[in-house]
Amino acid sequence: MISSIDKNNRRGGGPEMDDLYGVWQTESWSPPYVGPTDAIPTNEYKNVELALINPGLTHMDQPRLAPIARKLGLPYAPCMLGYEGHGGNRAPTIRGIVVHDHDVALLREAFAEWESHAAEKERQERKSMILKRWKRLVFGIMTKDRLDREYG
Predict the structure, then answer these.
(1) How far is CA 151 from CA 138, 144, 145, in A?
(2) pLDDT-derived band of residue 71, with 50, 70 and 90 as boundaries?
(3) What's the half-sphere exposure (Cβ side, CA atoms, 13 Å) at 104?
(4) Alpha helices (H) in 12-103, listed in sequence order
(5) I want to staple 93 with a disulfide (CB 3.0 to 4.6 A). Which of 42, 73, 81, 141 is the partner?
(6) 65-72 and 104-151 are packed helices; what angle lies between their axes, rounded to 10 degrees?
(7) pLDDT for the residue 6
(8) Model confidence at 120: pLDDT above 90
(9) CA distances from 43 to 9, 64, 65, 141 (A)
């Protein structure tokens, strides 16, 4: 019985010839356009797959964009790039967010402002740490000098 099935598959061109359709039997598919007022379509895990991104949406891959979009009140969804293997387990790779096309310029401008603010804040923190260390050094030298004078 099995040998007859194998013979039939070989005559028809083999299993690689199964489920073939002519061009006139198929229609090309593309995801529907998402307008500026439409909600961002997400999957059951509340993210958007990069391979299936709809026209009208843009993937932005800069770090820390989600909090900025949240503060601005812009609709966004996390973007899933694919899957990675970790010790035999497959885990989704989620990086960046997906926003409407018309929000991209606003978000880039806000991100640039946030970056400059973060750099300024880091510079101020670094300066305060340097001043704190100098203060500790000076107080240590003054204490040593006072102890040398008093107990000499």
Answers:
(1) 20, 10, 10
(2) very high
(3) 11
(4) 65-72
(5) 81
(6) 110
(7) 52
(8) yes
(9) 39, 22, 20, 64
